[in-house]
Amino acid sequence: MLVAKHLYRLIFSLVMVIIIILLLPHANDKGYYLLLPLAFSIHLLICEKFKYYSKQFIAFKVLNIILWTRYFVLPIVIVFSNDINSYLIKVPTNNSLSLALIILLAELFTLTFIVQCFGPKIIKPASIYPISTVDKKWFLHIVLGISVIFLLVFPDLIGRYNFFIVEEALEKTTQIHGLVAIVGDLAFFILPILVLSWCYRRYLEGGDGKYYWMSLLVIIPFILFFKGSSRLSIIIPSLCWLSVLLKLYPDYKKATFKIISVVIITVFVSITLYKQFGAVSSEIGSVNSIELSRISSSLNAYFSGPYNIALASELNGVSVDTLLVDLIKNFALIGRTVDGLATTTDIFNEYLYAHNLYADQIVSVSGQGYIFFNVTGVIVFSAIFIFSVMFFCNALQKERRIEFIYILSFCSIYCAMYMMLNSGSIFGKMFNFMLPLFIVCLINRKFKFK
User: Fold this and answer.
1) 3-state class of 254 per DSSP?
2) Are residues 298 and 254 both part of a single domain?
């Protein structure tokens, strides 16, 4: 069986290499992009631990999808794109593109080495124990009550959310930030976790499948609530609830995965149509034809591909002090101390647009690493998040408390998206939402109300 697995991986990698060789005659002057899928095929061949963890943890599944898109699909799309430069905000130099390939290869090598060598030492086999429900709820009830009061007193907090679809009239903004927004958001976690805990307890007592379906009916509406028009605001919470449901109801894995996947895809398409064509209610005739070059440009932006990394590498004179601004700018309350100071993303967007009116392009973790510490920074920054993913996954497989399963799932998935995001956005989410949530849940578990 073990020999068959190794043989399968070898054959699969060889097929990928053959595909790359067949593509070379069509690559023209873009053949060097095929180094990325070639390196990725080597990763698949030698990093067996990554494949194993991808079957066990949603975070590694997410990272696997990002790798396939970034190192296999995107380079091939670039090769067949006729005029990607016309869709770019700014065209990088050839030297920058060559450097970007080195950065991407260094990032992949770091991932492969760390997961294969350190994965077994960090992610240890865990014994299977029953999941514990939320028996003590006193503090959760108090926080939920305060959160609901905040939502009623400050209705703009709800205005940040859309339900199921994005329409132009629904994309609202609010000036309410900081502690008020954090407390208001807690209701969207505490309420479903309390109801889910009740359903699971009844399921354990009688084994009645109707409580599984009730759990789904509870979770799906909360999945359909998302902030603004950000796709991550629907994908990550949905994957976290998926992780919780899979832990609670292992006998319903296929049904859970299919239903949640359909919900995620449906809302994702809604948001994508809005972003690409203005609104989901647009007439069909207003939709432009989707060209390969446009797809390539979009994938580069969202997955921080070679062009995005190349442009980030062209930034000069960025002070190391900016790294501190990056890390704490998104922190509630603390972030006010650096108001008025530019982040790497601000500087990057000003470089692209030649003004500071827009800030819609992101410098990924590897881009940040290179800007501050060259290729060494790429390796160190990537290593930090890879180790974080493994740490959270190890804690997740041992966790038996419903509310902490969600928290650890959130942290592991967000860290797994480091190739698409920057450190400031990742740490900001953890500080603003996961840390308060962790403290609330810990107090609820540790202290009794007499």
Assistant:
1) helix
2) no
Residue among 39, 14, 40, 21 nearest 79 (CA): 21
Q: Are 144 and 91 members of one domain? A: no
Q: Check if the beta carbon of residue 429 is closer than 8 Å to that of residue 413.
A: no
In Å, how far are 143, 181, 194 from 443, measured between CA atoms? 11, 21, 15
Nearest to 140 by CA among 174, 187, 106: 187
Task: Provide the total of helices (H) and of strands (E) in the chain, helices listed first.
Answer: 20, 2
CA dihedral 97, 98, 102, 108 (to 10 degrees): 50
Strand partners of residue 132: 401
Q: Per 3-state DSSP, what percentage of the chain is helix, strand, and coil (rounded to 5)?
A: 75, 0, 25
- Sign of torsion over alpha carbons 227, 232, 234, 236: negative
Q: What is the pLDDT of residue 290?
A: 54
Q: Is the whole model's pTM more than 0.85, yes or no?
A: yes
The Cα–Cα gap between 322 and 279 comes to 36
Q: Which residues, listed in sequence order, are joined to residue 226 by a DSSP beta bridge?
A: 162
User: For residue 141, what are the CA distances in angstroms to 137, 185, 201, 404?
Assistant: 6, 14, 18, 17
The structural domain count of the chain equals 2
- Would you say 322 and 358 are in contact if contact means Cβ atoms under 8 Å apart? no
Average pLDDT, rounded, for the chain: 83
| Structural domain range at position 15 | 1-122+292-432+441-450
| 304 and 276 inside one domain | no
User: For 179-200, how does the pLDDT look when each residue is reduced to its tens digit (9 = 90+)?
Assistant: 788 888 898 899 999 999 999 9
| DSSP per-residue string spanning 381-442 | HHHHHHHHHHHHHHHHHH--BHHHHHHHHHHHHHHHTTTTS-HHHHHHHIIIIIHHHHHHHH
Dump pLDDT digits (tens) for 91-142: 888 899 999 999 999 999 999 999 999 999 999 887 777 788 887 788 899 9
- CB contact at 8 A, 142 and 123: no
Helix (H, G, I), strand (E, B) or coil at 65: helix
Are 8 and 51 spatial neighbours (Cβ–Cβ below 8 Å)? no
Q: How many CA atoms lie within 13 A of 91 on its CB side?
A: 7
- Give the closest residue to 63 by CA, choosing from 303, 341, 401: 303
